[in-house]
Amino acid sequence: MHRLFALVTATLFLFATAGCAPLAITPSSAAPAAMTDAAGVSNLVPGRFIVVYANGTIPTTTASNTGSTLTQNLTRFGLAVVQSNPADDATTYARLATQPGIAYVLRDRYITGHQISISPAPPATDADRYYRSPQNWAVIQAGGFGAGTPGGPTNGPWNLTRGADTRIAILDSGVDATHPDIAPNLVFNRSEIDPAALPSPCDDASPQDQAGHGTWTASLAAAAAGPTTGGVIGVAPQASILNIKILERLPATSGADLASRCVNGTTGGLLSWVVQGIDDAIAAKANVISLSLGAIVDLNSGDGAGWKATFDSVTHTANAAGIVIVAAAGNEGLNLSAGTYIELPAQARDVLPVTASTNPACAETTSPSAPCVAGPVTRPYYSNYGARLNAIAGPGGSYPNISDTGTNGFIRGACSTSGCFNLGSQPYVQAMGTSASAPLVAGAAALLHAAHPAWTATQITAALRLSAVTVPGMAEPLLNLPGAISLP
After folding, report:
1. What is the mean pLDDT of residues 138-163?
2. How confident is the model at residue 61 (pLDDT cuts 50, 70, 90)?
3. How many CB atoms lie within 10 A of CB 38?
4. N-to-C CA span, the chain
5. Is 285 exposed, middle or buried (0-12, 13-18, 19+ CB in 10 A)?
6. According to a count of CB atoms within 10 Å of the terminal CB, is the N or C end of the chain lower?
7. Is 421 inside a domain boundary?
8. How far is CA 293 from CA 131, 204, 438, in A?
9. ∠ CA 436-347-25 to the nearest 5 degrees?
């Protein structure tokens, strides 16, 4: 059998808590065994292939000639997803690779969410409550303030725009369509979850978020504001949310019964669903895509270079369609400046990678119960980094995590009442990770698009990089939305 990557690991980029006492759990206890092999063998999806065509034309006979079934034709990208009998993957691979007009064949991969155990948090008692508290620090750092809105500086980007007439595609675990912070801005619901490819008894494959991660990220980008909404405000509170579900809740490998295994499960999906989600975002006329997920790929092994070329083509096509693509850099604490390992889609063509930064009112310390003390903004311990990323930094948070309502290192956002990590039904959560950094920067990109509607996606990405501010102790410059908006 063709070995695809010497290393492919994939995670959702967060650490989460809904209170102040996170309890560590090992990712392997929550992730299905088929998804946890860092050597890149057991995270192959049996019987599932991505076929990339040399001239972009997809013939109708490829699947039938190889005993496979065509499951998805992504003509925009010149590729197809096919399913075959998983008992004979090596033969199917060889047959597909020798068909006329095929550039290369990839094996589909699982992507998996890892998380820290979490505890309950108090609900919001009135609209926009958390924005009017120190819990709003990340949204304000990302440029979500102004127009006299209580809780933030009086003047800022919101004086000019709050993101009306922009569309942010959240490619994640879905959103809670009933959440008062999400519902006012939700205009598009789609799920790319295919239960035949990755069945789960914990998720019905609908666009509804049954894991919590997608609702949290969506709220950071574009939670609505106003007296009839919920407790948080996003960076672009008048932007439209395009919910494109590409991740689902999966059961833990152990537990007393299925209900407990689902509650303590993790979030996962397929790399092909990410590609399908980007295709959906183009069709839905998104202005911005937010991706808080990814995979580490070894370019020197198997078809790692093929996955890089595929994502380069997909993301470049999206950029040419006018979409700014923002992707989390990852939480492994890796230096990606050297060697053959890269992060996808963060390091794909035309993508803006985002590392994490901390709260200056609560300087990082790895002692979770330490008091908050003001200090310099730094890159938190978990964030991937490296000059080759060409990233900017956005708020991601870090320890200490000591307050549900006051100054804190973590980031408050909405969660799903259909499933909030391992909390059951909870409307809000605190978390940290580059999973927060990406949607916060995506919200900033939406405001920049609204302020400069004639700018191309390439110009918006360039403006975010050009205006970002260098600070001592951080290689990646910090997001500076007011500076980007003021550029001519």
Report:
1. 98
2. low
3. 13
4. 55
5. middle
6. C
7. yes
8. 26, 21, 9
9. 45
Model pLDDT, residue 38: 34
Q: Among residues 92, 78, 113, 108, which one has the least CA distance to residue 5?
A: 108
- Cβ atoms of residues 429 and 212 within 8 Å: yes
Closest CA to 336 of 371, 374, 367, 379: 379
Report, as an integer, the average pLDDT of 40-68: 78
Q: What is the DSSP letter of 335?
A: B
Exposed, middle or buried, 394 (CB in 10 Å: 0-12/13-18/19+)?
A: buried
Instruction: Evaluate whether 441 touches 236 at the Cβ level (below 8 Å).
Output: no
* Least confident among 125-134, 301-310, 390-399: 301-310
Q: What is the CATH number of the domain that holds 204?
A: 3.40.50.200
Supply the DSSP string of 200-266, one letter for each residue: -TT---SSB-SSSHHHHHHHHHH---STTS-S---SSTTSEEEEEE-EEEE--S--SSHHHHHHT-E
In a domain, residue 444? The reply is yes
Instruction: Indicate the residue type of 146.
Output: G
On whether residue 368 sits in a domain, the answer given is yes
- Residue 69, domain member (yes or no): no
Q: Which amino acid is at 209?
A: D
Name 379's Cβ contacts closer than 8 Å, sequence gap at least 6: 355, 356, 357, 358, 385, 393, 473, 474, 475, 476
Is 103:53 a contact under the CB 8 Å cutoff? yes
- In contact, 314 and 356? CB cutoff 8 Å: no
Q: How many CA atoms lie within 13 A of 189 on its CB side?
A: 15
Q: What is the maximum alpha-carbon separation in the chain? A: 65
Q: Confirm if 185 and 239 have CB atoms less than 8 A apart.
A: yes
**Which strand (E) or helix (H) includes residue 326?**
strand 324-328
What does pTM read for this prediction? 0.93
Q: Shortest CA distance to 203 belongs to which of 181, 174, 177?
A: 174
Q: How far is it, in rounded angstroms, from Cα 307 to Cα 288?
A: 22
Taking the CA atoms of residue 382, residue 385, residue 390 and residue 393 in that order, the dihedral angle to the nearest 10 degrees is 40
Residue 244's DSSP bridge partners are 171, 190
Question: φ, ψ for residue 3 (rounded to 5)?
Answer: -90, 125
What is the domain count for the chain? 1
- Asked if residues 181 and 219 have their Cβ atoms less than 8 Å apart, the reply is yes
Cβ(455)–Cβ(288) below 8 Å: no
